[in-house]
From TrEMBL:
Keywords: Acyltransferase, Transferase. GO terms for molecular function: acyltransferase activity, transferring groups other than amino-acyl groups. Pfam families: Acetyltransf_4 (PF13420). This is GNAT family N-acetyltransferase. PROSITE patterns: GNAT (PS51186). CDD domains: NAT_SF. It comes from Candidatus Dojkabacteria bacterium.
């Protein structure tokens, strides 16, 4: 298995993995499948342009035998006062490939990439409270809870909390 950074030709790969993530884990993200599936290609091109250009956003894929089985994104701030912090987004491992350590390998790769960038001090993420396995994995990697947005996500008739977590890479 390899972890690789998405490139400009990965438009369809990113789009299809995001839609797959939203369809297979409807409570894992703050947006829903129907919302994104109905968007035009023009909307997708605008939404994914930063990930594809790799300037302020990066997307990483986990691949096994040329098949993408997981992904994770990083969003870097354009704001001078926030350039030390990065947001970890769109973390997803295909359900058929869970339990194989792919999520751990993606996180290891992300941390290696970020440790090479001396200006990055902190990684932040948000996770829906029902995603207990993801929360456990984040804690194993040294993330701690820094906040909780109660009833932030509505799923059907239920309201779910959004947990804010962060990890400091440097003092």
């Amino acid at each position: 298995m390899e972890i690789r950074k998405a490139v400009i030709t990965d438009f369809e790969n990113i789009k299809s993995m995001m839609l797959k993530a939203l369809r297979s884990d409807p409570n894992a993200f703050s947006v829903n499948y129907e919302e994104y599936a109905s968007c035009s290609n023009y909307w997708w091109q605008n939404y994914l342009s930063d990930y594809l250009a790799g300037l302020y956003s990066h997307m990483y894929f986990a691949q096994e035998n040329e098949i993408i089985v997981g992904m994770a994104g990083l969003n870097f701030s354009r704001k001078i006062k926030q350039q030390h912090s990065v947001d970890f987004v769109w973390f997803f491992v295909d359900q058929e490939h869970r339990g194989k350590g792919i999520g751990r390998k993606i996180l290891e790769h992300i941390h290696t990439v970020l440790k090479e960038r001396e200006e990055i001090v902190k990684i932040a993420l948000s996770v829906v409270s029902t995603q207990t396995k993801a929360i456990e994995l984040y804690k194993k990697f040294g993330y701690s809870v820094s906040g909780n947005q109660r009833r932030h996500i509505k799923s059907g008739n239920d309201y779910l909390d959004l947990i804010i977590m962060e990890k400091h890479l440097r003092p």
